[in-house]
Design brief:
Number of domains: 1
Largest sheet: 4 strands, antiparallel
Distance between the termini: 7 Å
Shape: globular
Strand order of the largest sheet: 4-3-7-8
Number of strands: 8
Length: about 90
Amino acid sequence: MDGTTTDPYIIKAVTATGTIDISSSAVLTAYLNGTAVTTLGCAYDSAGENGPGQYCTDNGGTAAGNYQLVATYTGTTLTATATLNVQ
């Protein structure tokens, strides 16, 4: 596979004052069957094609399958999980 997600992942956190977008400072790590993979990387792009957010790109060596993206936020124990289907 070789490509970048067309739509960004938006990571939000719920605070005492409401929901905030933490996409620019969250870290997304891709996992396959519980093991982190190095062939997929995600990064924040404020000028992404379909708006700001985290876009994930593979390096051409990613096998097809369903990957789990785990979002973490520095300084907290917060996590969130999404699925990325690589075809």
